[in-house]
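ok trying this again, last paste got cut off
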Amino acid sequence: MTLKIRDAQNGCLLPVRVRPGAKRDAITGIHDGALKVSLAAPAVDGRANDALVWFIAEQLNIKRAQVTFASGATSRGKTLHIAAKSAADVLTALADSLN
């Protein structure tokens, strides 16, 4: 299955499916075109969202401020806006984690 990431104004949109409360932070594959991410942080008081932003920024080697929510901040299915990176750049950065 392929990741349904797409270019957008000033960056790209990355669909993400989050599993909070996992043993460790990790990219676990692709689900329905979205990047599957397991996070140790619980889904309480926005902790999982904060952890997601930090984790994705770290994986892409970008600043935390470049990762924002385009939609889905209160659900498991989210869309992240990655500023100043094309879809191809993000796919390249995530390639090792997806194999």
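PB: full thing came through this time. The longest strand covers residues 11-19.
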